[in-house]
Amino acid sequence: MRLALYEPEIAGNVGAVMRLGACMGVDVDLIEPMGFVWDDRRVRRAAMDYIDHVAVKRHSNFESFRSSLDGSRIVLFTTKGHESLHDFRFMPSDVLLFGKESGGVPDSVARACDTLVRIPIRPQVRSLNLAIASAVALGEALRQVDGFNH
């Protein structure tokens, strides 16, 4: 299982997701362009020393990212998802994709994904923070595939 961030805009979110990946034993893909300079100290501050315990792969664009996958399903998390996180059946090889903070992913990227999944939240609010959504989704996905046996 992998986490992938599409054109992330906030260094702190990327650092937090990298720390999540390190703690859960999950690699992280970053799809460029990003909204900050990669060597930004804020990434390291959020990821702390965990940054040395996660494999991060950067991709120049979505096509490059997609072509790097070996038949893995791309599971896009979006407020427009057709299926609830809790009803969807994950597989160990899934790639959990999250869109940029300000607007998710374009329709062309959503169409290229294998499925669109939503995290149920109260109707009075729009969405979760990117790092929080990643943690919620990854936790459920790993639970389903017995991925906590490190």
Overall description:
This protein has 150 residues and is of the alpha/beta class. It has one domain: SPOUT methyltransferase, trefoil knot domain (Alpha/beta knot, 3-Layer(aba) Sandwich), CATH 3.40.1280. Helices cover 32% and strands 19% of the residues. The protein is built from five helices and seven strands; from the N terminus they run E-H-E-H-E-H-E-E-E-H-E-H. It has helices at 11-24, 41-47, 62-67, 107-112, 130-144; strands at residues 2-6, 27-31, 56-59, 74-77, 83-84, 95-98, 115-118. A seven-stranded parallel beta sheet has the order 3-2-1-6-4-7-5. The mean pLDDT is 92.
Write the layout of secondary structure elements.
Layout: E1 2-6, H1 11-24, E2 27-31, H2 41-47, E3 56-59, H3 62-67, E4 74-77, E5 83-84, E6 95-98, H4 107-112, E7 115-118, H5 130-144
Parallel strand pairs: 1-2, 1-6, 2-3, 4-6, 4-7, 5-7
Helix pairs in contact: 1-2, 1-5
